[in-house]
Amino acid sequence: MTTLKRKTTETEISLSINLDGKGDAHIRSGLPFFNHMLTLFSKHGFFDLELDLKGDLEVGAHHCLEDAGICLGRAIKEALGKKAGIKRFGCFVLPMDEALVRVALDLSGRGRLFFDLPDAKLKNIGVIEGESWSEFFRALSYEGGFTLHIDLIKGENTHHIMEAVFKAFARALDQAISQEQRLEGDTPSTKGTLI
Predict the structure, then answer these.
(1) How far apart are CA 175 and CA 36, in angstroms?
(2) Of 32, 48, 109, 144, which alpha carbon lies 20 to 30 A from 15's?
(3) Could you report the per-residue pLDDT of 135-165, keeping only the tens digit for each?
(4) Which residues of the chain register pLDDT less than 70?
(5) Cα distance between residue 1 and residue 193, in whole Å
(6) pLDDT (0 to 100) of residue 181
(7) Across the beta sheet with 48-55, what order do the strands follow?
(8) What pLDDT is recorded for position 85?
(9) Could you tell me where the DSSP H helices lie in the chain?
C-alpha cells in the first residue's frame, strides 16, 4: 500500500493505493459523483483505494479534482517503482450505454495527456465543472509519468461518458501494470530504463 498526504491552502488530501488489490474503495471527497467515479476506477482495475479529500468546494471542484489527480499520479508512480517486468502498455475500449470511449496509455515515464472529449459534451454535474475532468487527468498523467490518450468515440450523456472513461482507464492501467513473464523481471524498454 502506497500512502501520501498533501496539504495546500486549497485542499488537504490523504490517499493510499494498492495496485495489487481486490477493488476495495473508501472514498470521501465531498463530491458524490467523483466518489462514484473513483469507486468505479478501483473496482474495475482491482485497485484498493482510500481517499480523504477536503477542499474549497465553495469556489467549485477544480482545485479538488486537480489536486486529487496530482496525488493519485504520484502514488501510482511510487507504487510502480522501477517498473521491472510490467507490460507497460494498456488499451481498452469501453461501452457505457450510448457512450463509447477508448483509453490507451504507456507507462513510459513521460507524462502527457491527449484528451479528446469536447467540452460541449461534458456538462456540469453538481459543482463539478465539465472542463475540470481534463485537469484531473492532466495532473494524474503528468505526476504519474505516463502518456495517456482518452478519446470519446461517441456519446451524449455526461454521466455515461465519464463512467466509461474511468472504467476504461482502470482496465488499461490494470493491463499495463500486469507482469509480463517473458521479461523475467527486466524493464520493458530497449533503453534499459523507463524514465
Answers:
(1) 22
(2) 109
(3) 999 999 999 999 999 999 999 999 999 999 9
(4) 183-195
(5) 24
(6) 76
(7) 2-7, 11-18, 48-55, 25-28
(8) 85
(9) 32-45, 62-80, 132-144, 158-177
- Cα angle at 67 between 113 and 76, to 5 degrees? 65
- Distance of alpha carbon 167 from alpha carbon 181, whole angstroms: 26
Q: Measured in Å, how far apart are the chain's first and last C-alpha atoms?
A: 22
53, burial (CB in 10 Å: exposed 0-12, middle 13-18, buried 19+): buried
Give the per-residue pLDDT at 179.
86
Question: What pLDDT sits at residue 142?
Answer: 98
Name the pTM for this structure: 0.93
Q: How buried is 26 (Cβ within 10 angstroms: 0-12 exposed, 13-18 middle, 19+ buried)?
A: middle
Q: At what angle do helices 62-80 and 32-45 cross, to 10 degrees?
A: 20
Give the domains, in start order, of the chain with CATH numbers: 2-183 (3.30.230.40)
pLDDT of 194 reads 59
Closest CA to 105 of 41, 59, 149: 149
Place of cell 482495475: 45
33 in the Ramachandran plot: left (φ > 0), alpha (ψ -120 to 50) or beta? alpha
Say what percent of the chain tops pLDDT 70. Answer: 93
